[in-house]
Amino acid sequence: MKAAAVVYKPVGLAVGALGGVVAGAVFKRVWQWVAHEDDAPDATDEDRGWRQVLIAAALQGAVFALVKAALDRSGATAWKRVTGVWPAGRG
């Protein structure tokens, strides 16, 4: 079982990298919908207020966590379906 978990590591890393790309695209769309702006503020944007910067950061964190969890869970489920073993070695 531990060998399957070790073999899953590169798959998990690839899924994580894909998750970052997907989360970035999802966040951009959500920000455009919520704020009616193309770009979310950076923490160092002088022309943006604290409230807008912190709301953007919280929303970005939530979107990234949601996408990461969804992709991690999907990857683990698919791995178990293919190999019969849960990636963490429990299964």
Secondary-structure content class: mainly alpha
Indicate the percent of residues in helices. over 70%
SSE order, one letter for each helix or strand: HH
> In whole angstroms, how far apart are the ends?
8 Å
Q: How many helix segments?
A: 2
Unreliable spans: none
User: What is the oligomeric state here?
Assistant: single chain
Give the radius of gyration.
17 Å
Overall pLDDT metric: 88
> What is the number of beta strands?
0
Task: Tell me briefly what this model is.
With 91 residues, this protein is an all-alpha fold. Helix content is 75%, strand content 0%. Helix 1 (2-35) packs antiparallel against helix 2 (50-83).
Task: Describe the model.
It contains 2 helices and no strands. By secondary structure, the protein is mostly helical. The protein has a domain at 37-78. The protein is elongated, with a radius of gyration of 17 Å.
